[in-house]
């Protein structure tokens, strides 16, 4: 199993540009989570999907952020337009989730985004 | 979500046991205790979880107090590779699809001295 795969590993972009981060979850996992990590705020949950449906997007900072999961094997997180304060490491995680079931999350290696 | 309290940092020596504490005095009866760790420049990784009884796996042991208001993650022989931030997280297993999320606090930064 290749684990959760994120791309790109590093992204440097200019303020105002559109940025798209990609995630391939582990096959068979039915939940997918996007987190953002900064020194100041730590790990923050942005949005999560269950069976490809967004369940909770209350952590999405503003309308510039959007996330999609068109199928069980792919998700994107898009920032348009990007701003310097969006600079962070973005992690994707997946898990198998069932009611009353407890399974661990598997995280990807993250995308380090720098907006200049 | 019920809150957890962990020390900001701890130090240990290589090949010695490490006991990482976590207080969760407001834990509910349906909260599982999860531990994750994050090594430098990596994403968090699952370590262990438990409900009431002590748990062991290849990575660590989890000791849960009888009243469940606190727990301790035990690394039996610390190595340099165990230097990481360790997160103690509570998650309600009975909340269904609306609450599969894990909320991370600041965790404990473990330094392992050679």
The low-confidence parts of chain B are: none
Percent helix of chain A, as a range, is: under 10%
SS element count, helices of chain A? 0
**Oligomer classification:** heterodimer
Main beta-sheet annotation of chain B: 5 strands, mixed
Please give the order of strands in the largest beta sheet of chain B: 1-9-8-3-4
Number of strands of chain A: 11
How would you spell out the order of helices and strands of chain B?
EEEEEEEEE
Count of helical regions of chain B:
0
Mean pLDDT of chain A: 93
Overall form of chain B: globular
Distance between the termini of chain B: 38 Å
**Helix-strand category of chain A:** mainly beta
Spans of chain A of at least 5 consecutive residues whose pLDDT stays below 50 are none
Number of strands of chain B: 9
As a percent range, the share of strand residues of chain B is: over 45%
Largest sheet of chain A: 7 strands, mixed
Q: Structural class of the secondary elements of chain B? A: mainly beta
| Average pLDDT rating of chain B | 91
Order of helices and strands of chain A: EEEEEEEEEEE
Gyration radius from CA atoms of chain B, angstroms: 14 Å
Describe this structure in words.
The complex is a heterodimer of chains A (116) and B (114). Chain A is 0% helix and 53% strand. Chain A is built from no helices and 11 strands. Helices cover 0% and strands 46% of the residues of chain B. Chain B has strands at residues 9-13, 18-23, 31-38, 45-50, 55-56, 61-64, 70-75, 84-92, 108-113. Chains A and B meet through strand 4, strand 5, strand 9 and strand 10 of A and strand 3 and strand 4 of B.
Key structural traits:
heterodimer, A: 116 residues, mainly beta, seven-stranded mixed β-sheet, 11 strands, B: 114 residues, five-stranded mixed β-sheet, globular
Give a short synopsis of this structure.
Helix content of chain A is 0%, strand content 53%. With 116 residues, chain A is an all-beta fold. In chain A, strands 2, 4, 5, 6, 9, 10 and 11 form a seven-stranded mixed sheet that branches.
């Amino acid at each position: 199993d290749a684990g959760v795969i994120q791309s790109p590993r590093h992204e440097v972009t200019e303020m105002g540009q559109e940025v798209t981060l990609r995630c391939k979850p582990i096959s068979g996992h039915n939940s997918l989570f996007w987190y953002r990590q900064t020194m100041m705020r730590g790990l923050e949950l942005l949005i999560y999907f269950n069976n490809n449906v967004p369940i909770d997007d209350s952590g999405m900072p503003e309308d510039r952020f959007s996330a999609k999961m068109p199928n069980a094997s792919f998700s994107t997180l898009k920032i348009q337009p990007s701003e310097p304060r969006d600079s962070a490491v973005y992690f994707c995680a997946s898990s198998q989730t069932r009611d009353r079931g407890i399974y661990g999350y598997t995280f990807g290696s993250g995308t380090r985004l720098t907006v200049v | 979500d019920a809150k957890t309290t962990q020390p900001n940092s701890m130090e240990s020596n290589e090949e010695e046991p490490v006991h990482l504490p976590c207080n969760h005095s407001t834990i509910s009866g349906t909260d599982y205790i999860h531990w994750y760790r994050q090594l430098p420049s990596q994403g968090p990784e699952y370590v262990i979880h438990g409900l009431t009884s002590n748990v062991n796996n290849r990575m660590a042991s989890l000791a849960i107090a009888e009243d469940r208001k606190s727990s301790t993650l035990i690394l039996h022989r610390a190595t340099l590779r165990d230097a990481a931030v360790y997160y103690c997280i509570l998650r309600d297993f009975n909340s269904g699809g609306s609450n599969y999320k894990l909320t991370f606090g600041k965790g404990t930064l473990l330094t392992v001295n050679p």
